[in-house]
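To: structure desk
From: M.T.
Subject: fold request, one chain
Message: Could you run this one when you get a chance? Sequence is below, nothing fancy, just the single chain.
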Amino acid sequence: MALLAAHDPVRLRLVGPVPSLVLALKVFREDTAASLSRARELVGELSRDGLVGTLPEMEFLKARLQMRGVPVDVDR
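Reply: Done. Structure tokens follow.
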């Protein structure tokens, strides 16, 4: 939270339909070491209001998700 307080938070949002939730789950499991239940929560957040974090965090996730075919973008 200290990083978000020091830097403006950005939001990672879906910009289209997800071809498969499994693709997004894999990103969160592999690239964030999230448990399966936490990965499901993150995909749920992404599907609803989006994920909030620092610009580098969200740009990293954006690139990884787009490589798997998940249509996302970062709102600044």
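Reply (cont.): The longest strand covers residues 10-14. Let me know if you need anything else for the meeting.
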